[in-house]
Amino acid sequence: MSFLRYDFSSDNTAGMTASAIEALVAANQGFMASYGHDDVSARAAKAICGLLDVEADVRFVFSGTAANAIGLSMLAQPFEAVAAHHTAHICTDETGAPGFFGHGVGLVGLPGYSGKIEIDALCAVLDEPVVGHRQPLAALSLTQCTEYGAVYSDDELGLLIRTAKAAGLGIHMDGARLANAVAAGFDPTLIGTLGVDVLSFGGAKAGAHGVEALVVLNRTLTRRLDNRLKQAGQTASKGRLLSAPLLGLLESGDWLAGAQHANAMAQKLADGIENQTSFVLAHPVETNAVFVRMSDEALAAIRAKGWAVYAFDDGSIRFVCSWATKPEAVAELLGDLQSIV
After folding, report:
1. Which of 6, 42, 212, 313 has the highest Cβ tally under 10 A?
2. Phi and psi at residue 62, in whole multiples of 5°?
3. Which residues contact 219 (CB under 8 A, 6 or more apart)?
4. Nearest Cα residue to 308 out of 13, 96, 56
5. Chain centroid to CA 274: how far?
6. Which residue, among 109, 163, 115, 106, has the nearest Cα to 138 in the 3D structure?
7. C-alpha distances out from residue 142 to 60, 83, 100, 193, 256, Å
8. What order of strands is seen across the sheet that includes strand 280-281?
9. Sign of dihedral through CA atoms 260, 265, 269, 272?
10. Model confidence over 164-201: pLDDT tens digits?
11. Are 220 and 229 in contact (CB under 8 A)?
């Protein structure tokens, strides 16, 4: 095979939605204030706060890694640590960025099926004595939806957050795929009412490009936030061009509609795998990711047919759908999976 198809490799491999591009083109006209002090960024921030039904300070940064790491640096001192699921993006895919931006902030990985932290595991680490020879916990980071596409229920989130808050921890939420969680039924207004302090609000995976929002719901944390972002290289001089695609997604409704489509395509793929092939799903399919148990030989065979896929942490093979996934591509992939014995 002389080429690779990236249709299901990641939702990062899809381009921008038409609404995101149109908003970018519109924002490019004329002159506006720089460094985020523009009407486009203000409208995007207002749209996010409206979706969450909160009053919050919103800043736009270039990546989810930056949003996560800087957000965590606001909740933990360099001599402290953050608890997260051991497969969370901050633990496995950010090359130590939380520690770098937090000048030494540590990470404590916790277990749980499909990327959801088990309450008993959180309680166990909270019960450990604070001693001078290791970093005590200062924050809990939750991913909604998880790296395995699972969606925390309202009760699950509430219990974890209440338990962490009772122990004096701050709460961070990684919402890189928040749109997919909302499309699966999660109420985004719970983020504020349950007590999340800092949210990383996803844009790129939803159909924008190179923009995530750092949403600070606990406004006592925002002192000199702009200085922090500037030092980290996360202040865009032409801020309107950073925030505009996300504004386009939100005002058009494509932020949610694209996620609904992605989730539907993932369910179509999962149903086909269960009913038309000999492969087994490794995790329940709740959002836009499908995880499949596959031998090394089968993996090599599907790659030989031109499909770029991702071997995940638990040994399963991940297929991710996006706003741009076409039903015809799902059918073609299923046909190739059927042909592999």
Report:
1. 212
2. -85, -15
3. 55, 56, 57
4. 13
5. 27
6. 106
7. 20, 9, 20, 15, 21
8. 280-281, 289-293, 317-320, 310-311
9. positive
10. 999 999 999 999 999 999 999 999 999 999 999 999 99
11. no
- Position of tokens 């032409």? 238
Three-class DSSP category at 147: coil
Spatial contact of 213 and 203, defined as CB atoms under 8 Å apart:
yes
Can you tell me the distance from the alpha carbon of 88 to that of 285, in angstroms, rounded to the nearest whole number? 18
Q: What is the pLDDT of residues 289-339, one digit of tens each?
A: 999 999 999 999 999 999 999 999 899 999 999 999 999 999 999 999 999
Q: Is the peptide bond before 123 cis (omega within 30 degrees of 0)?
A: no
Percent helix, strand, coil in the chain, to 5, is 45, 15, 40
One DSSP character per residue, 105-128 reads: -EEEEE--GGGPPPHHHHHHHHTS
Task: Render pLDDT for 133-168 as a digit per residue (tens, 0 to 9).
Answer: 999 999 999 999 999 999 999 999 999 999 999 999
Whole-model pTM: value is 0.96
In this structure, are residues 232 and 274 in contact, taking their beta carbons and an 8 Å threshold? Answer: no
Dist. CA 158–CA 136, nearest whole Å:
22
Domains for the chain: give ranges and CATH numbers: 18-252 (3.40.640.10), 255-338 (3.90.1150.10)
Residue 49's H or E segment, with its range, is helix 39-52
The total number of residues written for the chain in this structure: 341
CA angle 255-256-259, nearest 5°? 95
The packing angle between helices 154-166 and 119-126, to 10°, is 0
